[in-house]
Amino acid sequence: MVQTLEKNQVPGKAASTWTGSAREQAVQRMFTAIARFYDLNNSLLSFGLHHSWKRQAVSYIPPRSGTRALDLGAGTCDLAILLDAHLRHEGQVFAADLNEAMLRVGQQKVRGQNLTNQISCLQMNAEHLTFPDQTFETVTAGFCVRNVGNLSKALGEIYRVLKPGGRFVCLEFSRPVSPVFRTLYDWYSFKLLPWIGTVVARDGTGVYEYLPASIRNFPDQDRYCVLLKEAGFPSVEYHNVTGGIVAIHVAVK
Ligand SMILES: C[S@@+](CC[C@H](N)C(=O)[O-])C[C@H]1O[C@@H](n2cnc3c(N)ncnc32)[C@H](O)[C@@H]1O
User: Fold this and answer.
1) Domains of the chain in sequence order
2) Ligand 1 in contact with 74 (CB < 6 A)?
């Protein structure tokens, strides 16, 4: 079935179960609406933890000078900026995102920190990367892959643009390990968060419903390992962070 959105319809949780271009449209409309508040929202909803999650993800990348790195779904460019610092400003970082509004905020940060020589911001779809085969030593993605329309296509593209031996480091929401923690987390995600969105923030974008639903519908740690292997990566491991709320998958080509 092909799903379409009316002009002013918000994505909400239904969009998290969609696939393909309908999902892409819905998700992109949401990111356009929240781009200006994305960083603030991110810090509030994660209690500031996203900074440390991103630092941990970057630590899985060998800090070799001359490294060509692609940060996919770079959004407001936090991870791309950390990546550049991790490479001691001696690498070449490409920050790619499908969403112009998110990327504009990111580009402002890159300019503000005088990093335009090191970080290039590009509007690009993860499912159709315009780079030649075997371009990068590293590809990173922070909270991006959960949002793409066709995950296996995006993983195939990531695999294609990596050099042999290159690594894909993926930071994504996952499944808390402890059942008690999982219950608490589900209450926060499915009850408190939508309530905050409706009553406190008076949100009209649907993001407070989309976020927990998209996390629930994304494959858990082990299932995601299988998808990465199916995309061609012979070696895949993962590291749980904050009890498995987030997982860092490291896949080597
Ligand atoms: C939750 S934000 C994450 C931003 C940033 N990486 C971070 O960690 O804060 C997800 C980003 O993925 C981007 N995205 C979603 N689907 C995409 C696609 N098919 N190609 C490229 N970017 C995509 C969105 O536009 C959005 O900026």
Assistant:
1) 40-172+219-252 (3.40.50.150)
2) yes
